[in-house]
Structure formats: structure tokens, C-alpha cells
């Protein structure tokens, strides 16, 4: 009997231990499930809403997604602007002009401006010549050797590579931003956003036009150099004027002297109102002086 009671007691204890362990395992499993369910909820953060002004600004982080990755600027060659001016004394203006035209044609140049002055002392032909950059030195040498006597010559070179590079880089960036703004305009949600984007587009287009105009001007001055040429001819006195004798010069001097004397007299006559005032002033002054003496 005792043996049966001991066996039953052992079985009851074993079953109690198993149920406790099972409960602990169930609790542990529930805690793990709860922890797994709560962990993602705690990790998720709601992003703050974007303001309208932030939406209008180009997003640098999305440039690669939109395909607007800036391109590397190509290496720009040297940009040198060459200018010069020359003054040449010649003997025959027509002959010299014909020689100049031949030299200009030979060097693929052209005359941008021509001005001729004829005075009593000299003749002056002023030319502004545009010549390809590579032919500039040959043109200057041809004028120096075969046209006449060079009175003056000034040549200058100006390196504008840095300016050209800076403008090119800024221009490329402005075109990228312009394309972004145009794409943003298509998806603008409000009228305010649309007006703000359109204003940014207008400003960028104006800046791009100015930059492109400056680059075209620099390219023109680099590709074609400018030379200002002055052809000078001093006039000689004619034989009739140079052979005037002493007697003729003496008579001319007498005539000039008489003309000067007449001019002086006429000048005095033109002052007659002032001469009339002199006696009046003297009379008043004497009257005042005599009255002062009588009082004394």
C-alpha cells in the first residue's frame, strides 16, 4: 500500500513540474512575440511635412535620380586677344592704299572701318582692320616692310582664358538649374509655386543670354585680331608759294599792319558809350570834392 502511495505522489510532483515549465515557456514565447511586435513600431518615425519654399528649391540629393549630373568642363584652350595700332608715313596716298588692299586680301583680313581726312597740312587715311589671329603678325610685318616709313607701332596681347573658363562653368550650371526649374513648373501644384518658378526661370534665362553674349564677344576678339592703321602724308608747299620774294613779303607785312591799325581804331570806336561816361564821372567827383571843402 505504501509503495502505491509513494508512486502516486511521485507522478503528481512530476506533472506539476511539467505544467510549471510549460507555463514559463508559454510566457517566454509571448514576451518574445510582444517584443517583436513593438520593436518595428518604435523604430518607425513620421517625417515632417515639407514647406512650399523647400519644394521649390532644386534637390541636390536627387540629381542623380533625375539624370542632371553635371558634366565635366572640357579643357579650354588659351584665349589670347591681340590688338595693335600703326602710323606709317607715305609718299602717295593712292599707291599706298592699293598696297594695303593687296596685303589685306593676302592675309584673309577685311576693313571694318575707313576714314579719310584731307587738310592743308597733310592727308590721313585711317583704317580699322580685322585679321585672323594666326595672320596678325604677318600682316603687321607686311605693313612695316613694303608700304612706307613706320612712325609708330604698338602691339598688345591680353590673356582672357581665366575669364572665359569662369563664364563657361557658370553658364553650364545655370543651364542645369534652368532645366530643373522647367521640370518643376510642369508639376507645380499651386499658382504661387508656379509664379515663383516662372520668375526663377526668367532670371536664369536673362543671365544665360548675357553669359552667352560675352562668350561670343570674346571668341570674336580671339579669332580675329584688330589693327588700327594710319597712313600719313605730309603736304609740300607749292612752287608758287615757296618762291615769293622779299618785296612781296614786305608789302604783305605793310598790309597786315594797316589792317591791324584799322581794327584797333574800330575797337576804340565801339567803346564810345564808355567815353561819354568819363566826363560825367569827373564832373560828379569834382562837385562832391568842392562841396566837401565848403563844409570845412
UniProtKB/TrEMBL annotation:
Annotated Pfam families: DUF4349
Domain DUF4349: 78-286
Coiled coil: 178-221
InterPro entries, A to Z: DUF4349 (IPR025645)
TM segment ranges: 261-285
Keywords: Coiled coil, Membrane, Transmembrane, Transmembrane helix
Name of protein: DUF4349 domain-containing protein
Species: Chryseobacterium culicis
Amino acid at each position: 500500500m505504501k509503495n502505491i502511495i509513494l508512486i502516486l505522489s511521485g507522478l503528481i510532483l512530476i506533472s506539476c513540474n511539467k505544467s510549471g515549465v510549460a507555463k514559463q515557456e508559454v510566457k517566454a514565447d509571448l514576451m518574445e512575440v510582444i517584443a517583436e511586435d513593438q520593436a518595428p513600431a518604435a523604430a518607425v518615425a513620421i517625417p515632417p511635412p515639407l514647406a512650399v519654399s523647400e519644394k521649390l528649391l532644386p534637390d541636390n540629393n536627387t540629381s542623380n535620380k533625375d539624370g542632371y549630373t553635371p558634366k565635366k568642363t572640357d579643357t579650354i584652350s588659351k584665349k589670347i586677344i591681340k590688338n595693335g595700332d600703326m602710323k606709317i608715313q607715305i609718299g602717295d596716298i593712292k599707291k599706298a592704299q592699293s598696297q594695303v588692299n593687296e596685303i589685306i586680301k593676302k592675309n584673309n583680313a577685311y576693313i571694318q572701318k575707313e576714314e579719310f581726312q584731307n587738310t592743308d597740312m597733310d592727308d590721313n587715311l585711317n583704317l580699322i582692320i580685322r585679321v585672323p589671329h594666326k595672320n596678325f603678325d604677318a600682316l603687321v610685318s607686311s605693313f612695316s616692310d613694303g608700304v612706307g616709313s613706320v612712325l609708330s607701332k604698338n602691339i598688345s596681347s591680353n590673356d582672357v582664358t581665366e575669364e572665359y573658363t569662369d563664364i563657361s562653368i557658370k553658364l553650364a550650371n545655370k543651364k542645369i538649374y534652368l532645366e530643373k526649374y522647367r521640370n518643376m513648373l510642369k508639376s507645380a501644384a499651386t499658382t504661387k509655386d508656379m509664379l515663383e518658378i516662372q520668375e526663377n526661370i526668367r532670371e536664369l534665362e536673362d543671365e544665360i543670354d548675357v553669359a552667352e553674349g560675352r562668350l561670343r564677344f570674346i571668341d570674336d576678339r580671339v579669332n580675329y585680331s584688330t589693327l588700327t592703321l594710319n597712313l600719313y602724308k605730309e603736304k609740300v608747299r607749292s612752287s608758287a608759294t615757296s618762291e615769293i620774294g622779299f618785296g612781296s613779303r614786305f608789302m604783305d607785312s605793310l598790309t597786315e599792319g594797316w589792317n591791324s591799325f584799322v581794327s584797333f581804331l574800330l575797337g576804340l570806336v565801339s567803346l564810345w558809350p564808355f567815353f561819354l561816361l568819363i566826363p560825367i564821372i569827373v564832373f560828379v567827383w569834382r562837385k562832391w570834392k568842392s562841396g566837401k571843402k565848403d563844409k570845412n
